[in-house]
Amino acid sequence: MNRQLGLRLMIGAPGVALAGYGVFRVLDDSSHTNPRHLARWLIGAVLLNDGLLVPTTMILGFVITKVFPPRIRRYVQGALVTSAMITVIAIPLIYRRGSQPAVKALEQQNYALHLTILIALVVAVATLAYVVKVRRDHRGLASNTSKRLPDAIHDSEAANPAAEA
Amino acid sequence: MLGISFTICFVTGLLSHYQYHPWTWLPEPAHPVWGYRLTQGLHVVTGIGSIPLLLVKLWTVYPRLFAWPPAKSLLAALERLTIAVFVSTALLELFTGLFNVLDWYPWPWDFVLVHRYLAYVIFGSLLLHIAVKLPVIQEGLSTPLSEPDESAVRVGLSRRGLLIASAAGSGVVVATTAGQTFSPLRRLAVLAPRRAESAPQHVPINKTVDEAGVRETATSATWRLTVLGPSSFDLTLAEFEQLETVEHHLPLACVEGWSVSARWRGPLLRDVVRRAGGDTDSRVRVTSLEQFGSYRESYVDGPQVEGAILATHLNGERLTLDHGYPVRLIAPDRAGVLNTKWITMIEVLS
Questions:
Q1: Which ipTM score applies to this complex?
Q2: Taking burial as the number of CB atoms within 10 A of a residue's CB, which of A135, B50, B79, B321 is the most buried?
Q3: Of A57, A103, A106, Cβ closest to residue B193
Q4: Mean pLDDT to the nearest integer, B66-75
Q5: A125 CB contacts (<8 Å, ≥6 apart)?
Q6: Contacts of A73 in chain B (CB under 8 A)
Q7: Cβ separation of B123 and A86 shorter than 8 Å?
Q8: d(CA A66, CA A73)
Q9: Tell me, what's the pLDDT at A1?
Q10: What phi and psi values does residue A162 have, to the nearest 5 degrees?
Q11: Considering only CB atoms, which chain A residues are within 8 Å of B55?
């Protein structure tokens, strides 16, 4: 227990010092860092994420649980999580496209089209995974075993004693 | 995962800072020539890949925002404050980093300085957060990642499912952007801000000749290369082009995370410096025709003097105006923007 406390102090104390140094530099160099505006942006970032982005995805998640039956639900959710992650990066690129001279080779791609294709691929993979799952369940029922076939991942985990250690 | 990527970003970020502000007694090395290409490519790819990961992480811990009572003790209140600082600075750091790569600065402060100072705050509060959560982390790592299938079917996406989906999301983002610096993935780079293939002479440009305002002076018949030192001299363009040249492959690696290897031809900086009375241990200042801008001059020190080329040709063709015609600097293991373009003066300082 004591050793753990020592370790925690060893990690935590430099952390406090480093963070404090960063704050000091921001305040010390205020003509370049504009701390007042910076503070507004910092608070704004949290408000946007916690007040808008997350609640929106939560409502969407709630709708999904109402609309989709249990077995397909997890595949819909997985595909949505993956697609949303790609979309977050693509949106600023789509917005900025064409804002720079062509010689810079910067933001010249058709990002909206590329995003559409990527999402289509994600949906295709999720659909395939769902189809495989359905067929496997059917086979499980047909062979008349009351116990469900374990997932491949379960097998590999059971075979890996390191995970228990 | 986020801890690892934040550490990569922090370390490579400090290395990049050192490129711009080295200590004179420990100059930036020249080997490996692709050093900065690797570290800065990693910095930007990891940073971009971290954005969706951070959002998913914050999404999963969202319910804790409403934990009641808000804090059971002063220590717990301090911990929540640290987390608030971490979340806000990390969100701002990652998004402003992405916007910087897109040449987009909609905020009223110096990006480079704030990006560095916030990195100290983020990494510091991350260390503190790890210290606070150490028992939880140890318990988490020693518990196998499985749960009863029944509940997973009932509530939908399991914890493992979420991990797979986030890994896929981050993986796609990394795979489709890394090609702007990692050439084997070039064809996949459909979300990369930069694509070298579409650039003149297959090398992207950060500042065009018109943005620099040097179109006239760079093409003027009165252009001279002035070399100052113990024995100063100057050269007309015709005289400069008579100098003995070499051709080397050197990467151009931008702080914004794109990089490309190219063939550069021109006289060695070393030879010009020696003619002015200096040598490979000299400190050299290279000045552009640009009248303004933070990077109108740069310093070449130590091992980089030996390998630097005063390039007149790029991939077998005469440099275009946007690439720095009539002559630009290219040195090994050097941040892109420090390879000064449209050179007019070279000073041997010591």
A1: 0.89
A2: B50
A3: A106
A4: 83
A5: A79, B168
A6: 156-157
A7: no
A8: 10
A9: 55
A10: -60, -30
A11: 49, 53, 85, 88
Confidence at residue B69, expressed as pLDDT on a 0 to 100 scale: 81
Q: Which mean pLDDT values do the consecutive 10-residue runs of chain A (165 residues) have?
A: 84 95 96 96 95 92 89 91 96 95 93 97 96 90 56 39 35
- The confidence score (pLDDT) of residue A154 equals 41
The DSSP secondary structure of B238-301, one letter per residue, reads: HHHHTS--EEEEEEEE-TTS-EEEEEEEE-BHHHHHHHTT--TT--EEEEES-SSSTTSEEEE-
Q: How many CB atoms lie within 10 A of CB A128?
A: 11
- pTM comes to 0.89
Q: How near does any CA of chain A get to the CA of B169, in Å?
A: 4
The label of the residue with tokens 């005289």 reads B239
In B, minimum Cα distance to A14 occurs at B124
In angstroms, the separation between the Cα of residue B131 and the nearest Cα of chain A is 4
Amino acid at B253: A
CA distance B337 to B296: 9
H or E element: which one contains B221? none
**Token pair recorded at residue A130:** 């769902």
Reference B172, options A120, A87, A86; nearest CA is A86
Collapse the DSSP code of B234 into the 3-class scheme (helix H, G, I; strand E, B; otherwise coil) and give the result. strand
Query: Do A89 and B145 count as a contact with CB atoms less than 8 A apart?
Result: no
Distances (CA, A) of B22 to A83, A84, A150, B120: 42, 40, 57, 19
B-interface mutation test, from A11, A23, A106, most B Cβ less than 10 A away: A106
